[in-house]
Amino acid sequence: MFDDLIDNRAVSGRQKLIFALCLIVLIIDGMDVQLLAFASPVLLREWHIVKTQLAPALAAALVGMAVGATFGGLTADRLGCRRTLIGAVVSFGLTTLASALVTGVTQLIVLRFLSGIGFGIAVPVAMALVSEWSPRRLRGQLVLLMSIGTMLGGTLGGVLAAWLIPALGWRSLFYVSGGVTVVAAVLGVIYLPESLAFLKRQARESEARAWLERVIGGEIGPLRASAERSTPDASVAGAGARLLSPANLRVNVGLWTAFFTLSYAAYAYVSWTPTMLVGAGFNLRSAIASTSIYTFAAVLGVLTSGVMLPRMGSRSLLVIAIVVTGVATVAFPYLLAGGVTMPLQVKAAMFFAGLGGGMSQSTIYALAATAYPATYRATALGTCVGISRVGGIVSTSSGGVLLEASGANGVVYFGVLAVMLTIGLIGLVAMNRHTVRTGAVSRRVSA
After folding, report:
1. First CA to last CA across the chain, in angstroms?
2. Is the pLDDT score of 202 beyond 90?
3. 3-state secondary structure of 342
4. Which of 275, 290, 311, 421 could form a disulfide with 326 if both were Cys (CB 3.0 to 4.6 A apart)?
5. Is 441 left (phi over 0), alpha (psi -120 to 50) or beta?
6. Residue 246: is it exposed, middle or buried by C-beta count within 10 angstroms (0-12/13-18/19+)?
7. What is the distance of C-alpha 423 from the center of its chain?
8. What pTM value is reported for the model?
9. What is the DSSP letter of 408?
10. What is the DSSP string of 428-445?
11. In 3-state terms, what secondary structure has residue 230?
């Protein structure tokens, strides 16, 4: 019933504001995640420590994100998306501010872990909230476009760091980012609505009706929520059990496998490719420039997916994206065998790897958002994001070992990435749920 009320009206200004605020949260999230990486060169000199001493602090945010994403969705289904999202934003805002006051690595590790929990909670809950308040015809595209937030945040963080750190020191970066985050939390308190599915489960009909009237505009009649609450799917206590039900077996296995493997490949490209290219004979500036091509192409990939999703459906688009990334990945060892004599070809391969990577990383969120019902969508998305973060952690941890075993052309390194992409592709093909091509309307179907 809620979907029908939202679907049968034009998108309101308040719905656009919900999308904008949740996108801003993800942009800030992406910026905050990168802060320590930008500050580390100055911090290493100031504290007179080596990189290995700072490494646990850099990894702590990723570990926290995995924990937060896994349990944040379940918390949102129990307590409501609005309360959970605002709490997460306040949490990582305050811990980011506190990080500006640390005097040692141990303090930094603890605070970055706590910040990471907030980061991890914010991503799936923001996506679930946007998904629930979006008409079905736009749901997949809007969730897909939200995935660009973390990429934009990382870029914005780099610009901010380049300006603030030389002028005011590394601590200023945490002060500014933490302050902006707290402001975003205040805006969320003022403008973000509650999850309608949550209010329905709580039998808070008058509050649900008030939010609907406020967001979509105009008066609506009484909601026939009692019949919907009587269905087994309405018990919040069973959100985890419903996610793990036999009916979801194939979609869970396929999605979780794809989230892990695609994240593994994406983190490998971003984290270890500069080191690999330097080992192949490229100078540092050229290696960094090539990696920047990957991130730029990834943004283009997100935008391309937004255009193609209504025409192709999410699963078909994902298959194409993975194939594009896979072909570029397989090409790298052959290109690097020539050393620095093929720089343009290497950059071209990096572009297509990033294009496919951006398409796949964004489209899989659209697929996940439309594959599960609203009653436990936040739990499902949180689990997917948590598994994605685990893939990133494993990739970051294992990349150095793979490079050591690869030689100058990275054959083992890229071979493992190709295997991971193939496994993800198999998982997606084995799924029995996807979005269909209906001119932009997404629904759950069986293969």
Report:
1. 26
2. no
3. coil
4. 421
5. beta
6. exposed
7. 20
8. 0.71
9. T
10. HHH-S-----SSS-----
11. coil
